[in-house]
Amino acid sequence: MDRRNFVRxxxxxGAACGVLGxxxxxxxxxxxxxxxxIVSSAADSAAYPLAERVAALLLQHWPESLALASRASDTRExxxxxxxxxxxxxxxxxxxxxxAAEGRGRFAAEGALSLRxxxxxxxxxxxxxxxxxxxxxxxxxxxxTEHWRPVAIAEGAPRPPIPFHAGVPAAAxxxxxxx
Length: 179
Hints:
Layout: H1 3-21, H2 24-34, E1 37-41, H3 47-61, E2 68-72, H4 75-83, E3 89-93, H5 94-102, E4 115-121, E5 124-129, H6 134-147, H7 170-176
Parallel strand pairs: 1-2, 1-3
Antiparallel strand pairs: 3-5, 4-5
């Protein structure tokens, strides 16, 4: 190998290392793992304000959660973010949560996703993946059980179409159902 080719190869290797060293993906991983990001659909006008209320409540009563609300373009994108483990928690309507968990309807292409309910918020559910840490699930459920003030809790509200997360205490699940 002559000197010119060696210098060229060395320059390409250096450029490749520079590009890889500035990848924003690692920063995104650290950011999302240090915060509880509650994603909702921008196409659903009620979902984002609900996510903002939940995030504000969590931040007020569990500051270390660093909770914040975020939007994806539509519900399919929300489910894709959960399925790809880019985000952990979302606001979905009960019907959307059921369809995503069963991999049917508009979510058929993605397949079934092991969703679990953290709380019932009227017609919506605060959901997570089954592998969401139990301690975090318990903390979220505790704050919402103690401090959530829904507009109205229907007595004997129907069970959510997906199971509660294993970290949600039974008392919190019962309170979410208005019992």
